[in-house]
Automatic annotation (TrEMBL):
It is found in: Endomembrane system; Endoplasmic reticulum membrane. It holds the Pfam family Glyco_transf_22. This is Alg9-like mannosyltransferase family protein. One of its GO terms (cellular component) is endomembrane system. The chain crosses the membrane at residues 22-41, 106-124, 136-167, 187-209, 218-238, 275-293, 298-316, 322-346. It is a multi-pass membrane protein. It comes from the Bacteria. The lineage of its organism: Bacteria, Pseudomonadati, Pseudomonadota, Alphaproteobacteria, Sphingomonadales. One of its GO terms (molecular function) is mannosyltransferase activity.
Length: 503
């Protein structure tokens, strides 16, 4: 009898270890799939918004090298420099180990993409509040959903801020969370706001819920937030600014002076339209249905997402990225709710089968198909980013040792900056009319720049020869080069042109 008991114990041990190994392999497989999808989608020259290049990549390069373009947001100090300061290190390393190349730019892009992967453990922790099956479902959806992959490769504060805030959420919903976990959540809430303070409605709802459930949570949450605030203050002091002065400057410029409205305004229901175009009807309906099935414990998180969309709907200038934290949250909750749905259906068909592998497998399969369908219907990555041909042509110009200044037609300037060029080459911006063909390239710019980035050969550029062309969806930009030297350009220099136009 003793031997039998021993064999049984060993058998149970082997079974337990085997089960744990299966879970570990499943988690590793999904994380590996997430990385593979992001590597496949990696396109460092394509951008979705000019901020990726001008506000973050360019400022990181400027901090690392002392040379770069300063747009109005940087000149007026309307944003903190946490992201540029962070990315300046890989830029600095790249310039040191491989000068005259784009190593720094690639390292910075990869570093940022890697940081956005914290959305994966964030999703796992949310699902784990119910079970490991729910955790795996949430992990899978955030790992493979095509827009989650896209935003991991967009160098935007929204991409990183959303991942950080989502990581803070699980302990705030967990009544058993300890002081250390709550302190970390407070830090992550504060850090997420430093990265993207426009996500304040989301953070506020979670904080207020945690405080309402248990007043004893206030101290660890505030303590973590103070640590994050100290980090933000140190960042501001490092760039020579008063701590958090960028918050007041942002409100003054964007709200008080209407800078944000100058980029366009839209109606209060624009985000509903955006969700339709970004998901497709079928995927959107399924997502919203499954969100409602996630369970009452997630209602505060759902409320935070809804409040975020509602708050941003009241602001005239709207962009889909402004509510990305809400979208990422809805995806994680919908994954959890969809598993609940398939478990219910399995139990209805055969009682007790809801805890088997079939509902989880069905959940993963459906989300994989939905992601693929949404990708095809919406146009996928290429529908929401592009312009890489322009940046690549600028990089080609920088790689040519004979080029001493590059002129860029006004319509293309948002895709060109020193940070995407392998060496320091001065840049000028040709005035309006040159791209449209209504005026020639100014003679002083002809003698100042020996390289030109334009579509059709502009008037007055007969001495330039075409050396390379790349294709965009609706046009074919080319790089033109002339022999000879370059002169200084105080009129059309990139920085001067930006300041003259208030950009």
């Amino acid at each position: 009898m003793g031997n039998t008991g021993g064999i049984g114990a060993r058998g149970r041990g082997i079974s337990w270890q085997s089960n744990e190994r299966t879970w570990q392999l499943a988690i590793l497989a999904i994380v590996a799939l997430a990385v593979v999808l992001r590597v496949h989608a990696f396109s460092p020259f394509d951008i979705s918004h000019a901020d990726e290049l001008m506000q973050y990549l360019e400022q990181a390069n400027r901090i690392a090298t002392g040379h770069g373009i300063r747009p109005w947001e940087t000149r007026y100090g309307v944003r903190n420099e946490l992201i540029p300061q962070l990315l300046s290190l890989p830029f600095w390393i790249g310039h040191r180990i491989a000068p005259g190349t784009l190593a720094g730019m690639y390292l910075a892009r990869v570093t940022f993409a890697a940081l956005t992967l914290i959305a994966l453990p964030a999703a796992w922790r949310l699902g784990a509040l119910v079970s490991r099956r729910h955790a795996l479902a949430a992990l899978f959806v955030v790992a493979i959903w095509w827009e989650s992959v896209l935003y991991s490769n967009l160098l935007l504060s929204e991409s990183l801020g959303a991942a950080i805030l989502l990581l803070s959420a699980a302990p705030l919903l967990d009544e058993k969370a300890g002081v250390r976990a709550l302190r970390m959540s407070g830090f992550l809430l504060g850090l997420g706001l430093l990265v993207r303070f426009q996500f304040a409605p989301f953070a506020a709802v979670l904080f207020l819920y945690a405080e309402w459930r248990d007043r004893r949570r206030i101290l660890p949450l505030v303590t973590g937030g103070i640590i994050a605030a100290a980090l933000g203050a140190a960042s501001d002091l490092a760039r020579g600014a008063a701590p958090f002065s960028w918050v007041f400057a942002n409100f003054t410029m964007n709200i008080g002076e209407g800078r944000a409205a100058g980029f366009g305004v839209s109606g209060p229901f624009q985000y509903l339209v955006d969700y339709y175009f970004h998901f497709g009807a079928g995927a959107l309906i399924f997502t919203l249905l499954c969100v409602l099935l996630a369970g009452r414990r997630y209602w505060p998180l759902l409320c935070a997402a809804v409040v975020t969309v509602a708050a941003h709907s009241l602001i005239g200038h709207k962009e889909y990225r402004f509510v990305w934290i809400a979208t990422l949250t809805l995806l994680a909750l919908a994954a959890i709710g969809s598993l609940n749905l398939f478990r219910f259906l399995a139990d209805r068909r055969r009682p007790g089968s809801g805890d088997g592998p079939v509902p989880l497998a069905a959940t993963l399969a459906v989300w994989a198909l939905l992601s693929l369908s949404s990708f095809q219907i919406t146009g996928g990555y290429s529908a929401f980013r592009g312009g890489g041909a322009l940046s690549k042509l600028a990089a080609m110009a920088g790689a040519r040792p004979d080029v001493c200044r590059l002129a860029v037609v006004e319509a293309y300037y948002a895709y060109v900056a020193p940070s995407i060029m392998p060496r320091r080459v001065p840049i000028s911006v040709a005035p309006k009319g040159v791209y449209e063909g209504t005026r020639p390239l100014p003679p002083e710019l002809v003698i100042a720049a020996d390289a030109l980035l334009a579509e059709k050969r502009p008037l007055g550029t007969e001495q330039y020869r075409q050396v390379a062309c790349l294709t965009l969806p609706s046009e074919r930009p080319c790089l033109y080069v002339r022999p000879g030297t370059c002169t200084p350009d105080p009129v059309y220099d990139f920085q001067t042109s930006l300041e003259r136009g208030g950009m």
